[in-house]
Amino acid sequence: MDNGRRAFLRTTAGAGAAYAFIALKDNWGEFISNANSMALDRSPEEMSGDKPFWFQVQQAYEVDRSMINLNNGGVAPSPRMVHDAMVRQLAITNNCPPRQLWTLQDPQIELVRVRLAKAFGCDPEEMAITRNASESLQICLNGIDLEPGDEILTTTQDYARMLNTIKQREQRDKIVMKQIKLPVPVESDDNVVALFESAITPKTRAILMCHIVNITGEILPVKRICEIARKRGILTIIDGAHAFAHFVFDGGSLGADFYACSLHKWLSAPIGTGFLHAKGRIKDLWPLTAPAEPRSGDIRKFEEIGTHPSAPRMAIAGGTYFMRASARRKEERLRYLRNYWVDKLKDHDRVRIHTNLAPGHSCAIATVEIDGIKPVDMVGHLWAKHNILTTPIEHEDFRGIRVTPNTYTTLRELDLFVEAMDGMLKNGVAGKKS
Ligand SMILES: Cc1ncc(COP(=O)(O)O)c(C=O)c1O
Prior knowledge:
This protein is α/β, with parallel strands linked by helices and 434 residues long. It is built from 16 helices and 13 strands. Helix 9 links the parallel strand 3 and strand 4.
């Protein structure tokens, strides 16, 4: 592209270009190519604060702006493109479910598998499409062979449902769960690696760990731990519920045996979508729902769960397509939004941020505490008085509220959140002593 055209696109990347985009909102190919033109040769870091560019992305979501959702880590809305695709596919199913679902739509899932595998960085034959990270992780935790006394190593900050799954195996199969405590905030990757390494024993058969810890937003050095585990013949089960499509990484090169993800969080795919990536160990892993050949090496054996809708799974493809407009830019924008509110609050003497804010350590998610106010009271007040949604975190080692904006979040919405936090710092929580 010549310099004249670059300059033209830069100057029109203001309000005029923004309105042109709205008109194009149902033509997603153009939306994406125009978004790319707006970015031109500017780096993701430079683009992270570009108002006209992110205005376009905000418009791609039809969300109710009378409330401010800062719990996108819980479950996120889909952009209109993805939502519409799901609604269309549901209607197609409903025309004649047995035929449409099983002979028309289900076979199309194969292309979704290919797209998803490409976005994650693996072979499609290693990618099972599931309903969420919980299902994927339970396939792993219940599906590996373990003897009484065998140990699964994990942390006290792993997701409660997964810890409960291991506890159930403790009761049923007399295995043992070992948990390490991660510092809050984590100081360094070396520190985390050393903690895992020193907790491995001759009985350790598997490691369950988060790629990004949901209660602090800490990104853990998964690749290094997988390498250590592999050398010792220990299986790795990575809980990537919050990682894929949040920050950029090459899933295939992490070296994990099993990697689980929810797609209704950061990919903005329809609710009830997730995946399980299994590398080389498919035959050894028992499915949750028994297929005709449970020891098969075909990844599809994990998808034999009985009748379920095709529509949400088909619309995953829209999520991967939408992701092509951003990926690295999305990651930087999410950090920009996180820093936007954190920078306005972090120096207050009663505010504590429980997240390591260095770029390699975190992205959109941060957890904040106000000394003297319970997280549940903070969350209740933010919702009751300001229509702002956050989530309380009560852990044995720390507490706070988790704040997760998404790319559709506006700076004005974050200003309103900061104003509400300032109000709590000055006046406490309605009806409670601070
Ligand atoms: C770390 C982690 N793992 C697993 C899950 C379960 O995800 P889902 O409910 O989508 O199965 C969550 C949900 O928030 C999570 O934060």
